[in-house]
Design brief:
Number of domains: 1
CATH topology: Rossmann fold
Largest sheet: 7 strands, parallel
Order of helices and strands: EHEHEHEHEHEHHE
Oligomer: single chain
Pfam families: adh_short_C2
Radius of gyration: 18 Å
Strand content: 15-25%
Protein name: NAD(P)-binding protein
Structural class: alpha/beta
CATH superfamily: NAD(P)-binding Rossmann-like Domain
Helix content: 40-55%
Bound molecules: 2-acetamido-2-deoxy-beta-D-glucopyranose
CATH architecture: 3-Layer(aba) Sandwich
Amino acid sequence: MSAIRPVLVVAGVRAGGTGVATAAAFARKGYSLALISRGAEDLKALEEELKAAGNDATAFPVPSYSATSISSVFQSIHARYPSPQYAIRAALYNASHSIRKPFLDITLADFHAAQETIVEGSFAFAQEVIPIFKRNEIDVDTGKRGFIIFTGSTTSIRGNTTTSAAAPAKWGMRALSQSLAKEFGPYNIHVAHAVIDGVINTPFSRSRFHDPPNWVENEDIRLNAEDIAKAYVYLAEQPRSAWTWELDLRPAHEKW
Ligand SMILES: *[C@@H]1O[C@H](CO)[C@@H](O)[C@H](O)[C@H]1NC(C)=O
Ligand SMILES: *[C@@H]1O[C@H](CO)[C@@H](O)[C@H](O)[C@H]1NC(C)=O
């Protein structure tokens, strides 16, 4: 390993979720962590938790995932993790906007909120990260200059009765990810998309679904954020002769 410290930037972190689990998993590989999220207080608590476990983590709260917010938060990230001591080598866009309503109940404001967080945010995030990757040295083990993954969901590939605001945004982000994979593969930048086809066991989803019975104990019926993080680390470490663009993950008993 070179003396330059690698940094993972994660957008979209929530207690017990994929963002935090991925951050912890990359920290074990020697990465410093830049954590972007809304909700400054919760984010600070997650920063403290990761630091208490011996990791180098910094919280970067944002008011929204608009392109303006993303561009200004990256200024702060560069100030905290300056080149050449640090290099952003991995990035996860996990911010999402969950909205399930019948089409005729969806307002233009709902539509724009989903578009902003999911499509505009991921576009702006990639525009910050990819120029940095292009300047990175190629890693000798993986053959890559950088790795960026976008977290999608079932609605990234399938519409349903209440997904007319969420699905257009999620399909849009998936299309962005595929376009970038093709354009930047030749620069040895690995772009991936994950379809998370099931509900993740987090405090947030447990309260949203009113603590479904057996949920915590039964790993057959929901996903663990730590197991998703393992898959993300696996993708990040794939050697350049066999890269995955898209991976789908679902619990064993998911009806799909
Ligand atoms: C991270 O991605 C998962 C899977 O799509 C999603 O359920 C979760 O809400 C996202 N986290 C945030 C903070 O948006
Ligand atoms: C699609 O919507 C129906 C009705 O709300 C629901 O029962 C079903 O589980 C949904 N399918 C998926 C794949 O989310």
